[in-house]
Amino acid sequence: MIVATGIGAFPRSVSLLPLPHNNFGSPHSISNPRNRIRFPERKSNNFNFNFSLFIPTNPPFFSIKAAASSSSEFASDYAEEPATNVKFPTLLNLPGCSSSLSLIGTGFREKVFAIIGVKVYAAGLYINPKIIDKLDAWKGRTSAQIQDDSSLFDLIYQAPLEKSLQIVLVRDVDGKTFWDALNDAISPRIKSPNAIDETALSDFRGIFQNRPLKKGTFIFLTWLDSSKILIHLSNEGIPSTSEATIESENVTRSLFDVFFGRDPVSPSLKASISNGLASILI
Question: Which of 103, 172, 194, 231 is deepest in the core (most CB within 10 A)?
Fold first, then answer.
């Protein structure tokens, strides 16, 4: 069901502790026929991580117009997703979240039409910095070990702290088409949907139906806890309010699994997050 949401955030930390250089972006090449990822990604820039907020302290300059129009909502630092050249702020304040969220990885989604790969959107995952305190068991693990360990991503999901996936469209997409593709990934993961699940999926669908989504549109999928997500959409930077709240544990878990489970729709995103976490958990 759809319910009203509040707004809240607190200022960013100024404590800096540089760590060794790390490749924050995705690996040189991502190839996953099942997910139709056909093109290799370019090597991303190297970053120094700020351990207190695990964000890069020397990312490239960010200049896309949509974010510049809301510069007060963004941190001054940005990281670029190399395959699409979309820039993501390393620190983010969203309506409905209790604190600033930190970027830990970026990637892209590509669909194949008539054997031609077409990039549809770039995506970046933000998490509440307190989540990192729950990941001590994975200290010293390699990126590959983290990526293959579903229990780590399950723990991130279960943590009662905010996680937000920012999607930035890199081409015009019809809202119905966007939802149909998302629903085709979510629904098979819900084996026996109940009335709450059906209502949540209907509300979710209603957000995108009959709504043209232009290139540059921001879509934020924000998990508040294991049964509740906020949906934010904006054509002009960070939205001032959320569009809706979706409440269904099966739907929220399935949505998380679509992006961060064993068969993610964007392998490049999960690989980049694994690289980021490996650099943090040293």
Answer: 103
